[in-house]
Amino acid sequence: MEIDFVVTWVDMNDPEWRKTFAEHKGIIDNSKNETTEARFRDYGLLKYWFRGVEKFAPWVRKVHFVTCGQKPEWLNADHPKLNLVDHKDYMPAEFLPCFNSNVIEIYMHRIAGLSEHFVYFNDDFFLIDDTLIERFFQDGLPCDIAAFRINAGTGLWNQMLRNNIRVINSRFDKREVMARDYDKWFFAGYGKRLRLTKLLRGYKKFTCLRTPHNAQPYLRTTFDQVWDYAGEELTRMSANRFRTGQDLSLELFKTWQICESNFVPYNTYDDTKMFSLVVRWKAAIEAIREQKYKLVCLNDSPHIRNFDEMMRGLTGAFDSILPEKSGFEK
Q1: CB 145 within 8 A of CB 210
Q2: pLDDT in tens, 267-280
Q3: CA neighbor of 91 nearest in space, from 8, 213, 215
């Protein structure tokens, strides 16, 4: 089984990017989720993402590095496993330039040469210990968790999740899906995350599923299925250059995959941890240095205090486990 990684990246310090951003939005606004500095900045840790891939997942066939034509100066573009992908290579021209990650992500299946089995990473998600293929795919299917969560918030993210579930409920019958895949929905390995699923079992409609910020495995054909069903709505939202409450998001594709029974039950919380760097940067540093998990997410924020101290700590922790350059570096 050939498995590719896809990772998206942007560097807001690029003068050309800033010029284009200003033409369409004006200024970075940290009071708005869709234009916060943390959504676009590069904090210098990307090389450790590549080092982690080379050391901890050497089985990957290809890394598709997706940008708006940007490339870190240290990146070895000639690496045989690296495919540099510009947004214009796979996204419709009428929707460019695009600063909306939802739109950038929903077209990923159009990346030339992308394998049927692939794992999608944001650039804040790092491999920090040996990771087998079976962490992402088993028996040719993505490993995932089918469990419900509460979505009572009013923020942009919550709105998008509700939009996703509206599409899911228009296509799938919840009771039929759960009856067919009872063992997958009530997998004992989910632990405490089974509670809400048991509570909502009798409810007629799907509510939001757990969508841990994770390195997410996909089947390329899942994207074809979702586009065949919801292509008109996906095309309409593609005109949104920045995130809006009317967007669908990549979690639609993850949930669709689950409802199609195209997954193997796996508690993705067991070996993965997201750290909000606003409040838990010291814990993140410790987790990296001690390799407490296979994967960690370093969730950025424009409101981090002691930013320089934090960056020194994170860099030192990564250097302690990934001290050598990878082949992806010049």
Answers
A1: yes
A2: 999 999 999 777 78
A3: 8
